[in-house]
Structure formats: structure tokens, C-alpha cells
Amino acid sequence: MPNPRILIKDHSAEANLFARRTFIGLLVVFVMVAMVLTNLYYLQVSRFEDYQTRANGNRIKVLPVAPNRGLIYDRNGILLAENRPVFSLQIIPEEIDDLDITIQELSDLLEIDDEDVSDFYKDLKGNRRFKPVNLVNRLTPKEVALFSAKQHNYPGVSVEARLARYYPYGSALTHVLGYVAKINKKDLQKLSEAGFEANYAATYDIGKRGIEKYHEEMLHGEVGFQEVEVNNQGRIIRTLNFSPPTPGQDIVLNIDMNLQLEAEKAFDGKKGTVVAIDPKDGGVLALYSSPSYDPNLFVHGISSKNYKKLLTTDRPLFNRATQGQYPPASTVKPLLALAGLEEKVITPESRIYDAGKYQLKNVERIWRDHNPWGHGWVDVTKAIEVSCDIYFYDMAYKLGIDRISESMNEFGFGDYTGIDLHEEADGIMPSRGIVKALFNRPWYIGDTINIGIGQSYWTATPVQLTQAIVTLVNKGKRIIPQIIRGNMQNDEVILQGIRERRPIAMKDEHNWDVVLDAMYGTVNRKGSARKAFRGAHYISAGKTGTAQLVTIAQDEKYDAEKLSKKNRDNAMYVGYAPYDAPQIAVTVVLENAGHGGAEAAPIARKMMDNFFRDQTFPEHQVIEHLGQESENAETTEAEVQP
Amino acid sequence: MLRTKLAPNNRSFWDRIHCDVLLLLGLLVLMVVGLVTIYSAGGQDLGLIQRQLTRLAVALGVMLIVAQIPTMTYQKLSVYFYVIGVGMLIAVLVIGVSSKGAQRWLDLGVFRFQPSEIMKLAVPMMVAWYISRFNLPPKTWHILVGFVLVGIPTLLIARQPDLGTSLLIASSGVFALFLAGMSWRFISFVAIATSAFTPIMWIFLMKDYQKQRVLTFLNPESDPLGSGYHIIQSQIAIGSGGAQGKGWLQGTQSQLEFLPERHTDFIFAVFSEEFGFWGVVALLAIYAFIVIRGMLIAVKAQDAFSKILAGSITLTFFVYVFVNMGMVSGILPVVGVPLPLVSYGGTSMVTLLAGFGILMAISTQKRIMSRE
């Protein structure tokens, strides 16, 4: 035996003790095994469904998928708004050790300005874990290539492609299309109030102005969903389920892009606006407001520097065609004449003698004609053709403001036209009540006389004027102007249809012809727009207007040179063509330009020339008016109101 | 043994190489389970499997070498092991190498070395050697000395700090004392003293991160993305496995990396997720088999030193299993203890199999001695 100490030990007692202790040890082991198993039974069997749900919650994420925004075409199929891939640089902050250093390194590689960096840090606050944050919104293809080559150096930084709006015609169509831009807090609030929040879960941009805003619902489409399996980093491992988004509808506008570009060219930066509407269906053929701006600037977030440039006194953001409230001046004389004829205050044959002055009994004030020598004997036709002021002073006096106001309301003055743009003003059609309410002034008889030539408190938007002309050429049928023509379905245009208002009923239908003939005479006989349309290959009709912006004192003569530029007269023209079967009605306003016939009518001429570029009309002869022969051959375009 | 009885004069191959076949079988089954689970948890990385296989081969080699050394030699060397081990623990605290905030390593130039691993075997050896010199059951005085022998390395390791290992080493020593016949009165006293010591330990000995672990254990949902993340994800993995399991390579919690420390400390969660409750029952059965086999070897051992050492090694092995499963399933706080023979890597693998080598030495050499 090796160890002598063992000899004195009681081996069997020790063995028994040890066996007992071993048994107890094993017993404890089994109790512990039972504890572990009980706990696992609880986790895996009793609470299995609970943990299964949580495991699925971990790995399955439902991601919204943005629908592609509908495209926008003009009436001839020219693409006006498209979706182009843009590349943005994204950072997953959790995957980056030192953001400042990384951004510093990236800005050596790419063009990153301070605004990008400060926006990035702003977006970073309250960002969800592992959600990428944009650093640069728009990388050039060259920058994408530059970064891709070095991407392996920047884990956590990636280039993300998405589709963004692009407007190929830029500033030429801004006031029609408007633009889309990033959804902001206010948009989100509106969306959630309307219950559309879920539908925009993946959408980046929303219509902010113009057609993009007005027809947002059609253009946006329905959100899709992607059920994906993600790992602990939120990275998508695979797609489990995919219900694709429904893309927005492609829409077609009534706009004729060729005509629209002609408008841009005709204005050449001068302040003003032109609206062209198809009288047959109310379709807006062209709508241009000058100066304009590039909507693409807004799509990717306009820089504050660029935005400041748009806040000039020329107000490029302002849509003059629908928001500009101009005194309509002589352009409304045909409509007023219609009211006079209807109320039998005048007849087609009744005449007055215009000696250049108009005065009421017991009133000291003298109203003058724009022609200081007067137009002699004038009937309604000649009054419109030469834009005789005295005739309309007299007629307005006889009609009275109440009847004028009521009649002009019927033509849509003082009310929104309902054109499919949210940017619209309603203008003012004065009445006793409205002037009292708006200006807290009583109505004076002199106001009625000024209304006779479309001045006083009367303001109208160019689209209102155009709509009134459309109503006139349609002899009372009132069609609401509409920019959208329809939506594309399987390469076919589904027309939206014409929206109409209650038509104007005329006691004597012949009255329409009298007025329309006078507008024919304005262009084709010895009228105020004769020069502008000389040699046109179509027959048009129209009416000039020269809106006075400041009151000229009683015995003062209007002198453009003396007035500061912003107070000079607005040149205006309304017209339509062809005379016998109108296809286009045009309103032109050229701000502070002077005489309507000389300045505005040529733009209308250019528009019509362009519109009829592919149409030929049979040779025509000037239809001489059968009534009063024009005595005064001199037809100046100038019109000076009292 | 059956075989010995049938062929008393013709020792089997396994006896000649001092290998306990049943124990080896149990260990090999565990290793295979480990490899299969590591393959799944490690993203089907064959390199990982290769490294684990190498490690297992080395550890098995060490086990067989250790099994050849006579138990007598261990008895004689116990004191030297212990003294050298304690010396190195002191050295670690003075000149040790830090890693992950703890000073556990000794840089020996050629390789790094964790002295606490030696103590995993040296402490039970030392206690067994000391206590077996006297008649059993030991007197209170001997038990007290035994506690001092256990306490010194335990405190030194706790200072590193490595709370998990220090508790395991303490329990290996305490098991030895228990098996030697420590009186129940003393056991009750130790239990009371330990509970009294807990607040002192909390205030003076535990570092902030250790306290945090305990707090997290008590209420993991208080910080689901921070310190509670491990245990919540682990419980989700286990619970979502259900009775049948999701199937091998199909565990979403592990495959999609929601589960941290998948192939190391938390491999049990991967196993539970993929093989379910019945898989866990089977795994525990294998562990139980090894423990029973170990305790049987202890009971049948020739001398007190061997009995106490074998019993202590076996029970400590089980404590590893229990602590790991307990922490992964949320009934114990998270301490860095791998699941023995299943978890990937670790120096602990070699120590563990060296321990089984000693068991095999005890198991196979008794017959040789009885015949002499």
C-alpha cells in the first residue's frame, strides 16, 4: 500500500459516507435539471405562441412601396412631366464610427455644401435606428461613378436611386404644371386629416402647385407593400410577399405645347400673361404667365439663395393668368353692349353723337373719350370697333350699376372660373353692396360711368376674361375652363368631359350676332385691332383694351413718359378665331406696355398664327357692316379714360 | 466492469490506453451536437468548423495524455500545481495583460495563458489532497482550512475581474469539501454566511458592469435595446423554437443575427430554437449520462483523493452546464460561461477535457492497481 496514512482509515465507513454524498449530489443535479427543463417547457411549450409572434415581429417587416407618379402629356402626346432616376447619398449613422470625419472625407470626393451637412444633422435627430439619412440629395452621374469606385472605404454610406419628377420644358409651363417637392410637416398633417397618410407612407414628393397639386390624387396612385425578412441590422434578406403599388394615372392636358412655347417666345420676359381656350370644350390650350421660373429647382429642394431670387418685384411665382386681377378696361365693352341690347337701353341702330366729351346734368365732372375730337355719330357696332368711350359712358349711365353687375356676374365676373388650378383669384365685379363691404364707400353715379369702360373697382383675371369670351362666342353656353383633357388608359385618352354652368338666356338671340359682328369689325374693318391682324390667313375677331392704372387729373393729358413704369397702362386684348367657327379664344395682358391694339394684339396674333399653322382657310372678303358707315377713318388704339 | 469480468486476464484496447469508452462516447456525442449547432449558428462557415475540430482534436489528445498519468502522481503534484497557480494569479494582477476590461492573461512570450484555467483543476486537487489526508468526515478545523484554500484563488480571480470563473472554482472546491463529508451543520452555516456576504460583495467587490448584469437579469425588459437585449433575444429564440423546433439552419433568431454570441456563450439558444423542447430534453439526457458516469467512476474509485477529485470534477462540469443554460434561458444572470463541449472555442475546452482525462485515469487505473 503506497500511503501509510490510509492504513488507519475506516475504508468502508468512508466509502459509505462518500456514496451517500454522491447520491445527494446526483439528487441535486436532477433537481437542477428539472428546474432547467421546467423553465424551458414554460418558454417553449406554454408560451410558444407568444415568442413565435415576437420572433416574427423581429424578422418580418412590412415596407410600403411608393407608386410611380403618373406622367403628364400635352394634347399631342408630348411628355411634359416625367420621372427620372436620381441618386442620393445616404448614411446609416449607426454603422459609422465618426460622422464628422466621414463627412469630411466624403466632401473631398463629392460636392457637399454646408447646407447639405446642416440638413443632414437636422434629419439625424429623432431618426429611427439603422434608418438611412440623406446627405446629398442629388448626385451627378460623375459623382455616382466617383463614389462607387471608393464605396468599399465607406461602409454605412450608400448611393440610393429613386424616381423624381423632371419637367423637360422648365419655366415654359410652370404656371400650368406647378411642381412636386418633398412632403413637409404641413402636407403630412393634411394627408393624415384626409386619411391618406398610409397611401403616402413611401412617397417622397407631393404636388405643391398647379396641375401637380390639383390632380394629385389621380397622379399619385396607390401604395404597394412588400413583406420582407430583415436581419438585426434592418437589412432586407429576402422578400416574403409583394403586393405591387398601383402607379398613378398618366394624364393628358388640353395644353398645346407648341402654342405654349410660342407664348413664352412672344413675351420674351416681359411682364404679362396669355390664356388661350378652345371655345368648343373649354380646354385650356395655353396658359403662360411671365416672368416664370424653373420648377425643377423646387423638386430637389430649392436653395435659399435661389429662392430669394424668385421673390423679386416682378413676382415670377405669381400666376398672372389666374391670380392677376386686372381692370378689364375696354375688353369688356362687347359684353356690356350685350347687356344694353338685352335691356333695350340701346338698339343695334340707335346712335349717339360723340364730340369727345361726356357730361351729366348738374355734375361738374367731364368724361373724355380717348379720341379728343370724338368719333362723331356712333352706333353700337362702331362703338365696339373703335372702342368709343362716350357711347359706353352713356349706356352705362342708362343701364345703372345694378343691371350691369347682375349681367356681368352671369358672365362669371367676380367669381372663380373653376379652372383646375388651386391658384386662382376671383376678381371684383363691383355692385353697391360689394363696394360698401370691401371699401366701405357709397356708390356714386360717376362709378357707374367708369364701369362702362371696364374701370372703377372692376378687376378680372385673364382666365375670367377668356371664359367670358368663350361664353360670348358660344352664345350663352358657359363652359368651365379645364387644363386636364383626360387620362391615358391602354394608349387611349379617356376624356374627362366638359363641365358647364347654367347658360345665359338672351331674350333676343340676334343680340349675340350684333356684338360678335362688332368684334369682327374691330379686326377686319376699320377697328382698333386691324393693323395687328393684317394679312392673317384666318379670320379672327376681338377687342382691344388699355387699362389705366392711375387716375389722370381732369385737365391733364395722359403721358406715358411722365409716368413711372409700373404705373403705365396695361395693354390688353381679347379675341377668337376663326370667326365663323371659333377654335381658340385668347386673352393677352401685357403689363405697363401701353396700348392694347399696338402691344397686346400682336401677341394674340402670334398665338393664333401658331395655332393655325397647319390649317388653311378659304379666301375671304371683309364683310362690311350694313349699318352705319364708319365716319372716322382714324382708329387709334389709344384709349384714355377720364 | 462487465468486460473485465468476462476477460479478466485480457485487458481491452480501451483499458490499455486508459480510456473510459462510455465517457468518451458521451463526450463525442456532445462534440458532434456542438459542431452541428456551430455550423448553423456561425452562418455555415466551414472555417469555423475546421478550427473547432482542430481544437477538439488537441483537447482530446490532452485528455488521453492526462489519462495515462497515474493518480498517485496527481496526488503528489497537487500542492505544486496549487502553489504555482496561485503565484501566477498574483502575477496576473501585477503584470497581466488586459483584454475587454479584465486582466486575465499572462503573456509568456510565446503564447498567452490564463492561469485561472489551471486553478479549475488545481483547486479541487488541492482540496482533495488536503482533506483526504485525514479521516473522513473531516473536522471543522480541516473544513476551515479547506475554505481558505478555496478562498485565496477565488478572490484573486474575482479581482481580475472574472466573476463567472471564480464562482465555478469556488464551487469545485466546495463540492470537494461536501463530498468529503462536510457536516450539515457547517453547510447550513456556509449557506447563511453566504447570504450575509452577498450585500458586502455587492457594495465592495462587484464592478459596475457586474451589478448591471444582475439588474438586467432581474428585469431584462427595462432596457430592451441595451443590456437587456441579449437575454430578451435569447428567450425569444428559445420560446419560438416550440416543442419541435424550427429545424436545423432554420432558426430565424440566429440566422438573421438577432441573437448575440450565437456560436459561443448563447449557442444553447440556437440549439433550442432549431431543435425545440424535445431536442433540449435529449441534450440534457446526454449531459446527465456523462454526470452519472462521472459520479459512478467517483463512487468506484479506490482511494479518497480519487473519489473526491472525480466527484468534484463531475459536479463542476454539471454546474457549467446549469449556469450556461440558466443564463441563456433567463433564470440566472449573464456570466460568461460557455456550454461545455458545445460552444465554439475557448481555452476552457482543453481544461475541461484534461479534467475528463483525470476521470479516465481514475476510472481505468483502479483496476490495474487492484490487480497488483
Structural description of this entry:
- The complex is a heterodimer of chains A (642) and B (372).
- By secondary structure, chain A is α+β, with helices and mostly antiparallel strands.
- Chain A folds into two domains: 65-253, Alpha-Beta Complex (Penicillin-binding protein 2a (Domain 2)); 258-291 and 319-611, DD-peptidase/beta-lactamase superfamily (Beta-lactamase, 3-Layer(aba) Sandwich).
- Helix content of chain A is 35%, strand content 20%.
- Chain A contains 22 helices and 25 strands.
- In chain A, strands 2, 3, 4, 5, 12, 20 and 21 form a seven-stranded mixed sheet that branches.
- The radius of gyration of chain A is 38 Å and the shape is elongated.
- Chain A starts with 10 loop residues before the first helix and ends in a 31-residue tail after the last helix.
- Chain B is mainly alpha-helical and 372 residues long.
- Chain B folds into two domains: 22-49 and 220-344, no CATH class; 73-206.
- Helices cover 72% and strands 3% of the residues of chain B.
- Chain B has 15 helices and three strands.
- Chain B has helices at residues 2-6, 13-16, 21-41, 46-68, 71-95, 115-131, 140-158, 163-180, 184-205, 208-218, 229-241, 252-255, 267-300, 304-329, 348-371, and strands at 97-99, 102-107, 112-113.
- In chain B, strand 1 (97-99) and strand 2 form a beta hairpin.
- In chain B, helix 6 packs antiparallel against helix 7 (140-158) and helix 13 runs parallel beside helix 15 (348-371).
- The longest helix of chain B is centred in the last third of the chain and has 34 residues, at 267-300.
- Chain B is globular, with a radius of gyration of 21 Å.
- The two termini of chain B are 17 Å apart.
- Residues 1-8 and 368-372 of chain B have low confidence and may be disordered.
- The interface between A and B is large, with 46 and 52 residues.
